[in-house]
Design a protein that fits this description.
There is one protein chain. The chain is α+β, with helices and mostly antiparallel strands. 64% of the residues lie in helices and 11% in strands. It contains 13 helices and six strands. The strands form two sheets. It has a four-stranded antiparallel beta sheet, covered by helices on one side. Helix 4 (83-95) packs across helix 6, helix 6 (163-229) packs antiparallel against helix 10 and helix 6 packs antiparallel against helix 12. The protein is elongated and about 135 Å long.
């Protein structure tokens, strides 16, 4: 009880030091901070997309035309109407290793911000110990003594010139950049899953076309042999028929390789081993379709929606704040300190009134000569900030370029599909008519072989074109920033 009573007083004094420090913290927070105050760079954005074509609308118009909500707009892949793709993307967002790594980096940024904020507060420590000493017998009647001590220490450096405030400002900007980086990984992941799924479906469709044509060409080759036996076809016709069949069969291994590569890439994106998706993909019907309109918004929306641009802008803000942090290091520092404790030659004596020791200190320190090191640090950070500004400006231009290119590619891909569909219909009709003409004796059998090759090429080109229009749509949504909504998604882990 005696020790507790004497302990209470110093702790109360130490608490008053902490209160004084917090009061000084509030006062320091109102002081101006050295270094430049960050402002978002002004950027003259165009009012509309140059490559916008019919079928492309702003976000609001597209929402009305498609009757979709703002939430379904963010999940843009649902507009393709393929449940299998929806399931793959949901699995990827929970199992992707790239996404988990980005989430870990976000947690690191949060911890770094907490470390920066801790610079506002005093440091308080407690210690206890004992030391044994032995003096010469001629000097002391009690040559061997044990000194016991216990106490508290507090120290705090006032943020007079805003070095800590700038450090916190930089850490908060880094945290926002890390959150946007996570969303950038998410946008890229969704786009890559969708693109590889579309690619897998394209190879599947092209293989089905090749198998169907192989069966038709095998039948044609057999009929050619029968016609040769009846004297209605030459040996050259037979060889040509089998040549066409084998050429089709020779193209199929490349399609099988592409199919397997797309499937294995999908497995990796989902954080699963190769082969894990095989049965699931085969069981799901192919149904991705291009929506009638595409929501693009206006160019200014790209600055708000593309996470990579937010990363570049927040990185610029962090590097600007660090200039002030480096400049503050050039100014004097003021530190406050205090200690309370007890010292006695017996453990029981620590509670006595005569054992109390205390001290209060204040230190003003300034560097008189340093060879220009702090100034060089400021110059170095200024150059880093200028590089970050250039990187941000370049990122904006690159984003605008990517959207314009994606809009052009998507518009041309739509036109290409229309032309390929017409060509495929004509090729199928030509193949049917040529067979009928040969059967009626109105044309040479070579015409059948020729129209069959044309039909195969037209149908294969149509499957490729349909895949390309979906791929261009995916690239367009990725260029626009994907499905991220900055107001409620940036802190999701």
């Amino acid at each position: 009880m005696k020790f507790s009573r004497f302990l209470l007083g110093p702790i109360c004094r130490l608490s008053w030091l902490v209160v004084l420090a917090l009061g000084s913290l509030s006062a320091c927070s109102s002081l101006p901070s050295v270094g430049p105050d960050y402002q978002v760079p002004a950027w003259a954005m165009p009012g509309r997309w140059l490559a916008a074509k019919p079928g492309v609308a702003d976000a609001g118009a597209a929402a009305d035309n498609l009757n979709i909500s703002s939430k379904s707009q963010s999940d843009w892949w649902r507009q393709l109407g393929d449940p299998a793709l929806d399931d793959l993307i949901a699995t990827a967002q929970s199992g992707s290793l790239d996404l988990k790594a980005a989430q870990a980096r976000l947690r690191q940024a949060r911890a770094s911000r907490a470390q920066a904020v801790s610079g506002y507060f005093p440091q308080v420590s407690a210690s206890t110990g004992a030391s044994r000493s032995k003096s010469a017998a001629a000097i002391s009647a009690q040559p061997t003594r044990t000194l016991y001590d216990a106490g508290f220490d507090a120290s705090w450096e006032l943020d007079l010139f805003g070095g800590t405030r700038r450090a916190v400002e930089a850490a908060e900007a880094d945290l926002a950049a890390s959150a946007a980086s996570l969303e950038n990984v998410r946008v890229s992941l969704v786009a890559e899953v969708a693109q590889n799924y579309v690619e897998w479906r394209a190879y599947q469709s092209r293989l089905a076309i090749a198998w169907a044509n192989l069966a038709s060409q095998s039948e044609t080759a057999q009929i050619t042999e029968w016609r040769q036996q009846a004297g209605l076809a030459s040996a050259a016709d037979v060889e040509q028929a089998w040549t066409s069949r084998e050429q089709t069969r020779a193209s199929m291994p490349d399609l099988e390789v592409g199919l397997a590569a797309a499937e294995n890439r999908l497995s990796t994106l989902l954080g699963q081993p190769p082969g894990a998706l095989h049965e699931k993909l085969l069981a799901a019907p192919a149904s991705p379709a291009v929506p009638p309109t595409v929501a693009t918004g206006i160019p200014a929306d790209v600055l708000r929606q593309r996470p990579d641009l937010i990363v570049a802008e927040r990185t610029l803000a962090a590097e600007t704040a660090r200039i002030g942090q480096r400049q503050a290091a050039r100014f004097p520092s003021l530190s406050l300190g205090g200690s309370f404790g007890w010292q006695a030659y017996s453990l029981g004596g620590l509670g006595g009134s005569g054992s109390l020791a205390r001290a209060v200190s204040g230190t003003l320190a300034a560097t008189l000569f340093d060879g220009g090191k702090p100034r060089s640090a400021v110059d170095l950070q200024t150059a880093v900030q200028e590089a970050a500004l250039v990187a941000y400006e370049n990122a904006v231009l690159t984003a605008l370029e990517e959207v314009e290119n994606a809009l052009t590619a998507h518009a041309q891909a739509r036109d290409r599909v229309i032309a390929r569909e017409a060509a495929a219909v004509s090729a199928r009709n030509a193949a049917t008519l040529s067979r009928q003409m040969v059967e009626a004796g109105l044309a040479d059998f070579q015409k059948v072989l020729e129209t069959q090759r044309t039909q195969l090429m037209a149908e294969d080109s149509l499957a490729t074109a349909r895949s390309a229009v979906l791929t261009s749509l995916i690239q367009l949504y990725k260029a626009l920033g994907g499905g991220w909504q900055a107001d409620n998604e940036s802190d999701r882990t």
